[in-house]
Amino acid sequence: MHDTPGDESGPGPEAPPGHMTLEDAFALALRSHRSGNLPMAERIYRAILTAVPDHVDSLHFLGLLLHQGGASSLGVELIRRAVALRPDYVDALSNLGNVLCAMGRPAEAAEVWRRVVALAPHPQAYNNLGVLLKGEGRCEEAAAALRRAIDLDPGRGDAHFNLGNVLMLLGRADEARSEYRRAVELDPGFIGAQEALARTLVQSGRCEEAREVFEMLLAASPGNPIAHHVLAALTGRDVPDRASDEYVVQAFDSFAETFEHVLTTLGYRAPEVLSAAAAAVLEDRAGSLDVLDAGCGTGLCGPLLRPLARRLTGVDLSAEMLARAQARGLYDELVRAELTGYLGDHAGGFDLIVAADTLIYFGDLAPVLSAAAGALRGDGVLAFNLEDGGEAIGASGFRLQPNGRYEHGEEAVRHRLDEAGFGQVTIRRDALRREWDRMLTGLFVLARRT
Ligand SMILES: C[S@@+](CC[C@H](N)C(=O)[O-])C[C@H]1O[C@@H](n2cnc3c(N)ncnc32)[C@H](O)[C@@H]1O
Questions:
Q1: For each successive 10 residues of the chain (450 residues), what is the average pLDDT?
Q2: Residue to probe by mutation, ligand 1, list 248, 262, 321, 330, most atoms within 8 Å of CB
Q3: Looking at the domain assignment, is residue 326 inside a domain?
Q4: What does the DSSP 8-state code read for residue 2?
Q5: Which of 316, 324, 385 to mutate to test the pocket of ligand 1 (most atoms within 8 A of CB)?
Q6: Domain range spanning residue 225?
Q7: 380, containing H or E segment
Q8: Nearest Cα residue to 440 out of 427, 425, 430
Q9: Which of 235, 251, 274 is the last residue of a domain?
């Protein structure tokens, strides 16, 4: 979000350090800064400040440079000095907000950016404010700030993209799609906007257009895991047995911030249904069980499983999802690992494994079910849900959908459970979550090892 150095007015008329004029010295420092020669830039900024301690531009840019080098607190101090000396120095204020935001101090950053927009119509500050307000769930205000940024500078692809994200949260997918499209038009190399555009095209059933965008994306970014995965679904070619680790990490790291908000609005029920089903058969052992929340995500199952558990472990591939689960303070252990491999390494480690909306990222269930059977002890219980593919599912027992998730057929699921060594199996259909205008049906499975 940083403004690049060099967008400021030139130095004042004070005395120059050494034999150069102050103006030449500052220009050389900025050139060095811009070209990445930070040691040289730092030396010159410091020399200027030794000669002229209140040189506001040097305070500003040395502050930025220190932040770039990791000394952010010191950097903030210097930029604050610059704006104390020149209170209407909007670029320094804008950068101060950027640094505070990067330091994880969003409230202070917002305050600074509000000062900026009160002083001048500053599109960058409106854009940044919009992103912060979205993070606080203040979506209408965020949209207003982002629209203001776009009015002031219609060529900003990032503001269109950010506005698209806010509109998605507000459930205005058609408008969001237009914003993403505009972002891509303005900046054809903007991978995040291409991904978002393609996703919204898939969601609205415009699969042919989505395919074109994903193909464009793959041409620009050949290893892109989202494009690979969804193109496999759209074309039926090279369909993987499960979503790749790279796909899961990329999809969920970027979804983590809004995951719970979105799932709440979709009437998501898997944690409640599965935990209640597990509690019903394990009630007499509540509080004494070793429980694994498999694909724990942000920890929505945590509060429901905690009463059953002596020890509650969560495993997930996405660091961003895990960070939110950690913040709940409910898990004894959280592990970043791929689920099948983790289960294989923990033979006989658990009494109960719950996988809420996790195995929908697995097509062929055989490896993960066999690993789960091995990770359960005695007559341990496995509870999980899938999306019901109904009669349309072919011989493989699963189908990869353009939304990136798999759906399964009940018959094949029963076979896989049997092969993996699960005896008593109950599968019931129930509402899982909303997908646009329809309620999806889930297959809710409770299986005991035999
Ligand atoms: C839809 S979320 C569900 C999260 C949580 N169980 C809930 O109900 O809110 C699916 C989670 O499974 C994780 N996941 C998917 N495939 C995985 C794999 N192979 N190994 C580990 N985690 C995986 C994702 O990172 C994501 O956090």
A1: 37 50 96 96 97 97 97 98 97 96 93 94 94 90 97 96 94 94 94 92 90 90 92 93 97 91 90 97 95 98 98 98 98 98 98 98 98 95 96 88 95 96 95 87 94
A2: 248
A3: yes
A4: P
A5: 316
A6: 22-235
A7: strand 376-387
A8: 430
A9: 235
**259 contacts: CB under 8 Å, gap ≥ 6:** 252, 297, 298, 321, 324
Integer Cα distance of 375 and 387 in angstroms: 24
- C-beta 406 within 6 A of ligand 1: no
Q: How many domains does the chain have?
A: 2
Helix ranges restricted to H, 153-223: 157-169, 173-186, 191-203, 207-220
Instruction: Write the CATH number for 53.
Output: 1.25.40.10
Residues 335, 213 share a domain = no
- Do 159 and 288 lie in one domain? The reply is no
Q: Are 177 and 197 in contact (CB under 8 A)?
A: yes
CATH number, position 290: 3.40.50.150
Q: Is-contact 259 298, C-beta < 8 A? A: yes
Residues 231, 232, 237, 239, Cα dihedral to 10°: 170
Determine the Cα–Cα distance for residues 246 and 157; give it in Å rounded to an integer: 26
Residue 425 domain-assigned? yes
Single pTM value for the model: 0.79
